[in-house]
Design goal:
The strands form three sheets. Strands 3-4-2-1-5-6-7-14-8 form a nine-stranded mixed β-sheet. The protein is α/β, with parallel strands linked by helices. The longest helix has 17 residues. Helix 4 links the parallel strand 6 and strand 7.
Length: 279
């Protein structure tokens, strides 16, 4: 089987290398086109202005200067990679892409682009217990290897399969539904006040920055923001069949998800009633 691998962690990430290793040993014809560097949380972002560079760094191996979705858009759509894969697999991502994480995920974004272009597509992610813990990545790769033929018929231009592997798998898998996560990330703020200074000795005018309370920054000042993502999210509502809950119990979660946004039928009916009454 011809397999194209991509990810959002970059072509040098351990996850994609382990996935390639396992699938290659199983006899598959494995190709790689992944971002040149870390491009997490890119969702389905694409480069519409400027040029995307695809560099061949080895036999059947390419890295792309653009987003994860660009790897598929330009790699396959632009015929930069001389192959028509039987399946596109995005991963193995370092960390979960479960529940509402999929909205932000570059891993899922690349798989979505593959599906939209007519290729059966799978996204796979794993959370490890530490930097040197590679067990969940091998578990995820072996799960793909052993279940490929069963997963592919589920994939279509409208459906991709999203797989997540917990740090300590219990050896079983479940179909996971999509829950809504409450993110506990902390936004850290630093503010600087911009002041004009005059250096008489050198006859120069410049700008000096000094720390200032966030709510006292005047015109010309600036605020720098960063996200502390060390705190894991939680489900807003308890939902035992949610992928995130299953992962907490040690199950591998397998979720067929729609590529295209789905219209809410109940809201459509309500809207039609409101518009009808307003005519």
């Amino acid at each position: 089987m011809i397999i194209l691998l991509t990810n959002d962690d970059g072509y040098q990430a351990r996850g994609i290398k382990i996935l390639e290793e396992v699938l290659h040993k199983a006899g598959h014809d494995v190709w790689v086109c992944a971002p040149s560097d870390q491009r997490s949380a890119q969702s389905h972002a694409m480069t519409l202005k400027g040029k995307v560079r695809i560099h061949r760094y080895g036999d059947r191996h390419y890295h792309c200067s653009g987003s994860p979705a660009d790897c598929i858009l330009y790699g396959l759509g632009g015929n930069s990679i001389p192959v028509h894969p039987d399946v596109v697999i995005s991963g193995i991502n370092h960390g979960y892409n479960a529940s509402t994480d999929i909205l932000y995920s570059g891993t899922v974004g690349a798989a979505s682009e593959g599906a939209l272009r007519g290729y059966p597509s799978i996204a796979v992610s794993a959370r490890s217990a530490g930097e040197d813990d590679l067990g969940p990545f091998y578990t995820g790769a072996e799960f793909i290897r052993d279940n490929m033929e069963a997963l592919l018929p589920i994939c279509s231009t409208d459906v991709l399969v999203n797989i997540n592997v917990p740090p300590r798998p219990n050896g079983k898998w479940r179909v996971g539904k999509i829950g809504q996560l409450q993110y506990l990330d902390v936004v850290e703020k630093n503010a600087s006040q911009q002041n004009t200074n005059f250096d008489a000795a050198h006859t120069q005018i410049g700008l000096a920055y000094s720390d200032a309370p966030f709510d006292e920054v005047k015109v010309g000042g600036e605020v720098s923001l960063s996200l502390n993502t060390e705190v894991f999210p939680e489900l807003r509502e308890k939902m035992g069949e949610a992928d995130f809950a299953l992962l907490e119990e040690g199950f591998i979660s397998v979720s067929p998800i729609k590529v295209n946004p789905v219209v809410d039928e109940e809201s459509c009916a309500a809207l039609e009633k409101i518009l009808g009454e307003g005519r």
